[in-house]
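Milestone M4 deliverable, item 7.
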Amino acid sequence: MEPAADVVWFDPLIGQGTAVARRITSLYPTIIKRSPPTWGAIFHASNTAPSFAALRAALRNQLGGVLSEQLRLADPDVVLSVHPLLNHVTAAVLRHDSRRRALMTVVTDLIDVHRGWTCRGADLIVVPTEPARQVALRWGVRPDRLRLLGLPIDVRFRPPLPGERAAARRRLGLDADRATVLVAGGAEGTGGLGDQLLALSLEPHPWQVIAVCGRNERLRRWLLGVRLQTPTVVLGFVEDMPDLMRAADLAVGKAGPGAIAEALATGVPLVLTSYLPGQERSNVRFVVDSGVGRYAPSPRRLLEAASELLGGDGSVRHTMALRAGELAHPRAALDIASACLGLAAATPK
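Output delivered:
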């Protein structure tokens, strides 16, 4: 971190906001887990100009006061927003502030950018992909206020050095020379992870599998009791995902933007098994059309994709890995931090 920088975290949607804002925001994890189509409907319904104008007014009513108070207490040079519901209300509050402060937005959706992200009052909007940049341009953001720097991820995600992939496999008790599949269901171990593991490991296959169950301890214990015929390491919540990714030839999971960016930065082809309706649907098309992965929404198709990408002479997988490297932004977090510091330096005190 820059020694002269003072970072103050503030979350008016969960931590310090009004009771109404906190209650509405807290429904998001429940909705996406129990009824993803409902979330897709909410996403698209709120993404029209009239509906978002109404939402923006409601958010300002709920959050304007707490944001103004936090600005007074923290007295920042730059306000950096990483949530689509906070950009416009923050811009409105800053317009009435007694001091000039810059507003910077870091878009954390990959392709389908909700209009909440594209606040024309922001001094700088960082986008993760060229399609996202084009959406922002169509919605009236000035080109000079847009920068394509990638999605911020842990800087430890990088391609393996010579010998590093084999060493990572040996540490896990796996064969150093056998093709390896990394299957993950996010921090909560969801997304049909159990069915995917059975497809890849129940019968004997020429690959080996690393299964990351996250906090889903029930699934982890169940898998440990299943007689899997393909060599499989079953893990719970991990802190070393960059090392696990470097051990893999193929990454399997849902179409979350972070997981995609991490695989690209490591140069690992993807097999996407599901997506959240709304902001993640286009992630699947992006991965497939960019030539860095496959979409396999069923165990049968997952098995077919793994057989294709891990079989033969490896040329398809190698081409995908090269393409992943071309699309990756492994230094995005550092570049975004640098842009923020530059904005702070350029803002009149």
